[in-house]
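S1.2 Input.
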Amino acid sequence: MRIIKTSMLREFWEDHREAEASLRIWVQLAKAAEWRNFADVRRTFPSADLVTMASGRRVVVFNIAHNRHRLIAAVHFNTRIVYTLMILPHKQYQADAWKEQL
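S1.3 Output.
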């Protein structure tokens, strides 16, 4: 898969060093993946969740750094592109304000 905005992930791990190793592994696995559907994503990342937004958009939420952070991405299976939309500490993710921003 092609990942758009890995720079956002690097910026995040500069402030949250505990996330760096997990994010690097996520990037490596996602780049090597050939996901055709969400079931394929779950084979790579069993804890990933598919969330449908109020707008109807679907995003995939990945647990990062032993469940401390959430990576929210739009996965376009037809074009093999993953757009990293945001990464949040778990507490901010649970507040659900991120849903208003997407």
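S1.4 Remarks. The mean pLDDT is 93.
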